[in-house]
Amino acid sequence: MSTTAEAEKPPVKSSRTGLVLGLILALVGAGGGFFIAYSGMLAPLLGGDDHPVAPDESHGQDAADDGHGSRGSPQQNAGNTGFVPIEAITISLGPRGQSRHLRFAAQLEVAVPHIAEVQHLMPRITDVLNIYLRALDPHELEEPAALLRLRAQMLRRVQIVTGPGFVSDLLVMEFVLN
Description:
Blueprint: H1 2-8, H2 17-39, H3 42-46, H4 55-58, E1 81-93, E2 100-111, H5 115-120, H6 122-134, H7 138-141, H8 146-162, E3 167-177
Antiparallel strand pairs: 1-2, 2-3
């Protein structure tokens, strides 16, 4: 009789909370992974160069320093990299009563054949960086990893303005928050 009573009981419904929680975590993880990959934060970690130099571009280049500087080993196209300075940008932050300022200066790492083209686009580059930095909240700048995140975002914006293959890195020369 006890076996028939147990058989007549309806099965206990399992909670769907675990399934919903798993689905939400999977969506958040996928969104975070997409953001990190899309914003270009993975490129420096993976050591890959977004714009490899074709073998025919390195022939005929003088290995001597051309005044723009170079970096990397001789096997990495020494003398094929120049630097284009970005004028210092000073931005007021927060409400008028607090009068905090950010002073930012940087240089763009550019392949030597494209230096003139990047210099020609410098007003657009400065405009894009100015708009981006003005949109930031002051408390965002005080975070420990803020400079890394800001650098990746600014490099991505500069690469959109200049086009693919022109700017390979953004080097922060001055980042003063007072």
